[in-house]
Amino acid sequence: MTRDQSDFESFFEGYVEAYNRSLGDSVDHEAIQTHFSPSFIGAGPGTLMTGDNDEAFARTLEKGFAFYKSIGTKKMNVTSVQITDIDESHYLAKVHYSAEYDKDGEPLTIPFPVSYMLEDTEGQLRIFGFIAGDEMALYRQYGLISD
Question: DSSP code of 100?
């Protein structure tokens, strides 16, 4: 199936909307989990993990959003989405984000990219892998966490 740019932009806008809702009173597990394949991989500096889109992932989301809220995360925005076709049903998406934080009562914006591997299964895009930079180093750099 051939996809246009707007399909990917809509996909990631939906993902970010679920992320932003999850910064509120409760994590929107269902909305976030619908963006992921039944199994997926994740990589960052010095880490490679595999995961299943199950209850354990939902618990990981709870912990992750508790951390994000604790460091003052207020909102995530998609600033651009760059797509590379891998084959007729797989894509590489480099997504540029802009995250908004409250740091000691002052607004702070941090830009960063994440690369995603997507599959198109039965007409639905899903994340089956992602590669992120050193998130903790970025938070240290901007003074959101200390060693």
Answer: E
pTM value is: 0.94
Instruction: Check if the beta carbon of residue 53 is closer than 8 Å to that of residue 38.
Output: yes
Structure tokens given for 93: 């998406």
- Using CA atoms in the order 9, 15, 19, 24, what is the torsion angle rounded to 10 degrees? 100
Instruction: Tell me the pLDDT tens digit for each residue of 105-130.
Output: 999 999 999 999 999 998 999 999 99
Cα–Cα nearest to 53, from 34, 27, 31, 28: 34
Q: Tell how far CA 41 is from the center of its chain.
A: 13
Long-range contacts of range 27-36, CB-CB < 8 Å, 24 or more positions apart?
27/58, 27/61, 27/62, 27/65, 29/58, 29/61, 32/61, 33/57, 33/58, 33/61, 35/11, 35/125, 35/126, 35/127, 36/126, 36/127, 36/128
**pLDDT tens digit sequence for 46-95:** 999 999 999 999 999 999 999 999 999 999 999 999 999 999 999 999 99
